[in-house]
Structures are given as structure tokens and as C-alpha cells.
């Protein structure tokens, strides 16, 4: 009977513990939801006064619907008197760069826009920077990498080694070319080469239009995929000034914008409680695996985004850059 009584007491103790931790978990979830709601509402309410809007464009460039909506809202807001684009990007898809470039130009039709470069503005990142009316960078920022590439894997040798043969029946020789499972034909390479050259010519045309101070004889050397420090980029007229946010505000003042206006960052509106929960869950998983939180950010940037980009790319890889083919 003593053993049974002790077991009953132990079960009750465990049950109380479970109830306690369930209550703590519910309270934490409720607090996170409340925090997210207050954060989002607070961010939006701060935009209801005249201000300079700051939008960060970081990481891999792609067709980001949320960012495009934010840029559209900035363009249409009467409270936004000027715009600072805070750019730090190695580039991404050419289509992503194109649609963001167009969105920035629509803002510039209504109010002055300045780009300030952080770590780098390369490839499609530079494309977006020159959509603004003025480009500022740090002395050691990386600028340029103007060019386009198209990459595809060829795993045919691997398939041969493992004894796998991939059969294809298609309507024409260039349908679904190039593909993973066989070496590209000369015709397929020529087709891709033409698309790369056409997109490259379009990109160079944007540079020529937006940076008219670069003379025609200098343009080919500056659009061959090379990257430059901020100091070099200023010398080559790829940017307009060396500086930071204070420099950006000073330039906006020359366009009639009151320098005393607050600079308010328009952050992404995806900071919902679902995102907070998923982020917390990812961090917990990484810690249980003995990995740091930075590992998750690195995975998202290098694997979760860049490796799965579709279409034509304008992205700086760092190790060998990219050159028009």
C-alpha cells in the first residue's frame, strides 16, 4: 500500500509539472503574438508623420512580392518625402533586379531617392542601386560585377557510373535544353549564349542610361564583370559619393527635403507570430544539433535561396565573379 501511495503521489507531481509547463508555453505563445501585433502596429503608426523612408534591400535578389508592395506603398505615401535604399546584396535573378529597378524608378518619379551601399552592391544589387538618383557607398564597399550568367549542372557522367540511362522524347532538338542528364549540344549552347548576350546588352544599357557620366570608351572595361571598392567605384563614376546615412540625408536636403525629418525604416510586414514561432523553432533545433543560430542564417542565404534561383542570373559569387558569355 505504501508503494502504491508513493506512485500516486509521484504521478500527481508529474501531472502538476506538465500542467505548469503547458501554462508557461501558452503564456509564451500569447506574449509572442502580442509582441508581433504591437511591433507591426507600432511600425505602421510611426509612418503617419512626415519622414524619410528607409528600405533595406539585402541578400539574394529575386521577385519579392512583399518588397515590391512596400516600394509601391512608399511611392504612394504622402508622408514620405524622400527615400533611402540601404543596399547590401550580391545580386540574384535578372528578373528580380528588373522588377525592383522599375519599382524604384516609379518612386523616383515622385520623390528623391538615394542608395547607400553597405557591404556590397553587385550584379542585380548594383542594378537596383543605379535606379536611384544618387549612389553612396563606403570606401571598402564592393561595387559592380556588371554581367549575366546562366548555369546548369551536367550529371551525365555520374549517371553513367551508377548505371542509369535517362531517355527523352521531345518535339524539337532545343526543347528543355540544356538539361541535367546529358551534355549540352552546340545548338543548345548557342541558344543560351544568345539569351545571355541579349540580357547583358540590356543591363549595360541601364548602366549607360543611369550613369551618363561614364564615357563610351570607359564603359566596356567597367561592364566586364569586375568588382571595385567604393573608392575605385567613385573614381570610375560607378557611384556618386563616399559616405553613410548622414551623407544620404545631406544629399536629400539638396533636393528640398528637411534634414530634420526622422528617418523611419519601412520593415517587412512578415514579422507575424507565425514567423516568430518558426524562427524560434529553427533556433531551438539548431541548438539541439549543437549548431549556432548563425548557421541557420548561412544555410538560408547560401543554400535556401541562392542554390534554387531560377532563370537568368546576375549575381556575384565572390570566388570567380561572372562575365558575359
Automatic annotation (TrEMBL):
Which Gene3D superfamilies does the protein's record reference? 2-enoyl-CoA Hydratase, Chain A, domain 1, 6.20.330.10
Q: Which UniProt keywords apply?
A: Hydrolase, Membrane, Protease, Serine protease, Transmembrane, Transmembrane helix
Q: Does the keyword Cell division apply?
A: no
**For this UniProt entry, which segments traverse the membrane?**
20-40
Pfam families associated with the record: Peptidase_S49 (PF01343)
**Which sequence ranges form a coiled-coil region, renumbered to this chain?**
none
Phosphoprotein found in the keyword field? no
Gene Ontology biological process terms from the UniProt entry: proteolysis
Q: Where is the Peptidase S49 domain?
A: 108-254
Annotated EC: 3.4.21.-
The family database entries (InterPro entries) matched by this protein are listed as: ClpP/crotonase-like_dom_sf (IPR029045), Pept_S49_SppA (IPR004635), Peptidase_S49 (IPR002142), S49_SppA_C (IPR047272)
Signal peptide region? none
The protein's GO terms of the molecular function aspect are:
serine-type peptidase activity
On the tree of life, the source organism's domain of life is Bacteria
Which family is annotated?
Belongs to the peptidase S49 family.
Q: What is this protein called?
A: Protease-4
Tell me which species this is from. Answer: Pseudochrobactrum saccharolyticum
